Amino acid sequence: MNSKIRWVPPILWGVLIAVLSLIPGGPGNLNFLGIPYVDKIGHFGMYGVWTFLIFNAFSKNPTATSGKTFWVTFISGSVVGILLEYAQFEMMVGRIFEINDMIANGLGSFVGALCGLGFNHFRNRNKPSKLRG
């Protein structure tokens, strides 16, 4: 895949996260279909998918190692999640600053990067690996 095109999915997903995080919203801690804190599940899933996409885009770089790619994607996803929570607080757009959202973002980032690591290992198990580390 072209080196620039591989970044389109994570960029689009990141824009979606930013838009959903910063548009005026209602109360947090939603209870949808009897599932408490369903918004935390949403945070976890959105950041998990995003860091998985970022991992896969980074993993195409011939100089990247799997360990470095894991940490870069996990830390990047977590930092963006923290910054967007602070932006919600500062912008006062009807959003609620929540530490639990940050935790869900970080956990999602960790699992997404871990899934990227596993997927990359599975994809490359029968061919010489460019990602070692």
Low-confidence runs of at least 5 consecutive residues: none
State the oligomer.
single chain
Averaged pLDDT: 85
What is the number of E strands?
A: 2
Helix segment count? 4
The main β sheet shows up as: 2 strands, antiparallel
As laid out across the biggest beta sheet, the strand order is: 1-2
End-to-end separation:
23 Å
Radius of gyration: 16 Å
Helix and strand composition category: mainly alpha
Helix content: 55-70%
In terms of DSSP E residues, the strand content is under 5%
Global outline: elongated
Q: SSE order, as H and E?
A: HEEHHH
Can you describe this structure?
The protein is mainly alpha-helical and 133 residues long. 67% of the residues lie in helices and 3% in strands. It contains four helices and two strands. The chain has a two-stranded antiparallel sheet with strand order 1-2. A hairpin with a 2-residue loop joins β1 (31-32) and β2. The longest helix is centred in the middle third of the chain and has 26 residues, at 66-91. The model has no long low-confidence stretch (mean pLDDT 85).
